[in-house]
Amino acid sequence: NSKVLSLKKTPLEDNFLSQKNKNIKQPSFPLQLNLCNNCGYVYLPQVLSPKKSYSYYLYNSEVTLGLKKHYQIYAKEVNNLVKKKNKKLCVDIGSNDGTLLSGFKLLKYNVVGIEPAKLIAKKANKRGIKTFNSFLNKAVTKKIVKLFSKPDVICANYVFANIDNIRESTKIIKSFLSDNGLLVIETGYHPEQFKKNMFDYIYHEHFSYFSLGVLKKFFKKLKLKIIKAKITKPKGGSIRLIITHEENNKKINNSVGRIIKNEKKLMINKKNYYKTLENRIFRQKKNLLKYLNNKDNVIGFGASHSTTVLLHHFEIGKKIDYLIDDNKIKHNLYSPGFKLNVKPVKNIKGKIIILLAWQHQKKILERHKNLLNQNRIIIPLPKFKIK
Questions:
Q1: Pairing of β 131-133 and β 110-115
Q2: What global pTM score does this model have?
């Protein structure tokens, strides 16, 4: 195994603090990527306990711009591949506030969520999405089978990379899935993200950084096969896989071979691929720091996992007065490590704004054009620019 990319130490990225707790000392943890030289698997060697990450968790699917619509289209695409006509069951692992399951509910599915964050599970149940507050384990799958049946569709969105022991979890999923059932995984796709210097998607909650070649070998060992793959837009570049039991006679779509061929061409399993990425990131950091030198009245737009990583790795936290964000849950909290106060967007007053949530720049600039027009906007990535 080789260490291929090191970022600055970072506290737990979504651990925003209340006024009462803001003086608590937050530990920082190493953040680096390792590459398995034999199989090409990319992962974090230091694994933090999921209980640490999820007992205090503020992310809601519905606040991610465009995700609700994306999930409705997703549900339709998956439904087109399901043979069964009625009484269909969809189970979502790490179902968050039920945004994806709402899409399947519209298609007349019975829907069940499995969600480890207590408050978010409670919110989903209030919305009428049956949700078990639990991590994925045999006990919760037995409960669901007893209440309903084995699922026709199991979804795992942006959660597969967050599971420490993916082999054990996949075995549980396999025994839970109905004979003709489909497992649908959507996860961040690092060849797409790194192409645009998107290193800020590397954080402690994401243990794994998958490529299709690695996943194909992994599922084959567990007698599962990927029958379709699609690169999608969310999170700066994701991949959606449709998987089924190996013995099913479903044909493998040519998308699988095509994407793997492209991965080989990019040489994503070579150390040099990460070295060039590191150099590109360093150039953007240097440009930003040079611009911020001796500047006052700087505010950051964005308060999320990825903005925490960006603030720490680019070492700009001390140059920023406060943060603004659209997510009401984050208002009046303080950011991990730098303790920057998060305020509503209306608090912008003629300043320099660094768009920390740069992946959503198009939607942010459209949504707030009246407010943002009077400010100087800095886009830190993929390439430093002043708007």
A1: parallel
A2: 0.88
